[in-house]
Amino acid sequence: MFTEEELSRIKEYLKPSKKIVIITHHNPDGDAIGSSLGLAHALVAAGLSPEVIVPNDFPKFLKWMPNAKKITIAEYKRRKASELIKEADVIFCLDFNTMARIGILGDWAERSRAIKVLIDHHQMPDAFDFVYSDTTIPATAQLIFNFLQAAGYRQFIGTDAAQCLYTGIMTDTGGFRFRSTSAETHRTVADLIDLGADPAFISSSILDTNTVGRLKLLSIVLGRLQVVCDGRVAILSLTRDELKEYGFQKGDTEGFVNYGLSIMGARVAAFFMEDLYEDFIKISFRSKGDTDVNQFARKYFNGGGHINAAGGKYYKGLSETVEDFIHYAEQEGL
Ligand code: 5GP
Ligand code: MN
Asked: pLDDT tens for residues 142-185?
């Protein structure tokens, strides 16, 4: 948590006269949107007018969140996003650890004279003016809850903020299943339910969102499932043509990689997907226990993330990428 002194310095910027901006990472997920909107709702309740900006659009299954429609999506509203960032007094940077992860927003933010406040749980954060980073906490939304409490803003966590923060924690913990889910996480979630979060509604809004196209893509992924390294490493993949054939929508492949990890004896799962427009392969890694896919993604695949969930990009064709992956996996003894 920020020190008392840091908190009071940050609170100097939480005044109606100040322009407050909240930004989060590229391809925003439930935690990115949940923590950003959760913080925004609490600040609105405190009488402030924060603006949430994301680099690009986010999946439909997150659009039900209160005020999701008010988010400025920089890929569609470039001028508005850059103006807001340029004129900001304070920029909250949520759920990412380096400006390099937010594309053009990072350049604008770096040039803005605003103070930058990082609240995040990814490994090895860059330097910001204020940093609250805790890699042992499963979701940035949980850190936002801690921050609001420490700042004396608990009374500003209304139903909308609680719904958003709960969503962030639920999605980033894989439904409270991942290893970093702690008693403290459950206590936070219990508080959020007291404050108005509705678990059944949120679960259904997030999970009961399959489309025929998505299930067809899943059937292709499972049909081509491969295991290497004596069954410890599962490989899944999709080509651009397959994505096109089934009308791929943002978020459609969310969670596919977990099927690999659900195989008995699997320690690592890797999901490779050809980008729809550019010539690179987007990769998602998941692992169990001490197997560190963050290090692996950093070392070989221009990426990073967390010990058990990371991602990266690779600039070769799909089959070459998979071949290289198998080579590196064997080399690292995965
Ligand atoms: P996902 O597989 O869900 O896209 O990403 C899993 C985790 O890895 C996320 O926490 C995300 O921050 C991180 N991650 C995904 N792709 C990249 C990447 O290209 N670079 C870095 N540094 N991290 C990534
Ligand atoms: Mn997160």
From this structure: 999 999 999 999 999 999 999 999 999 999 999 999 889 999 99
Low-confidence ranges of the chain (pLDDT < 50): none
Q: Which ligand is nearest to the CA of 140?
A: 2
Q: Are residues 155 and 253 in the same domain?
A: no
pTM: 0.87
- A 10 A CB-CB count for 11 gives 12
Same domain as 8, residue 71: yes
- Of 173, 207, 241, which residue is a domain's last? 207
Distance 98 CA to ligand 1 centre (A): 12
Q: What residues contact residue 170 under an 8 Å CB cut-off, 6+ apart?
A: 30, 176, 189, 199, 202, 203, 206
Structural domain including 86 reads 4-207
Per-residue pLDDT, 179: 86
Check pocket membership of 305 for ligand 1, CB cut-off 6 A.
yes
Q: Which two tokens stand for residue 63?
A: 């659009």
Whether 251 and 319 share a structural domain? yes
